[in-house]
User: What shape does this take?
Amino acid sequence: MGMGLIATGSSVNTTNQSEIDRAYDKLLQLTPNVKAILGDEIMSYMINNETPLSVVYSGQASEMTSSNEHLHYVVPARTNIWYDNLTIPKTSKNTKAAYALSTSCKNQKMQRPMLNT
Assistant: This one.
């Protein structure tokens, strides 16, 4: 739905029913061009050049571009906000280490090697 909203110039956060309906209609128009709606399986399609375009997670894109030099990962302007979460289960056996990991992930020095990977 987010792709349809963006394609029609609407916010992905809209609650306006006419904007949602317009996005739905846009997605219906695109249906003949959709090969499949997949999860991780899309990676093999892309790596093997069986489909020319896909919406994927950045981690999948990184793996696919490492496997096929002809693939490129593009982030559309004004559309994406990423965030990752760490959780510590209340049944955790080593909460001290879990908190230490969480704290280190917030440290910019620790983040630097993870950027642009």
User: Anything to note?
Assistant: Helices lie at 2-7, 17-30, 42-47, 58-67, 95-106, 108-111. The longest helix spans residues 17-30.
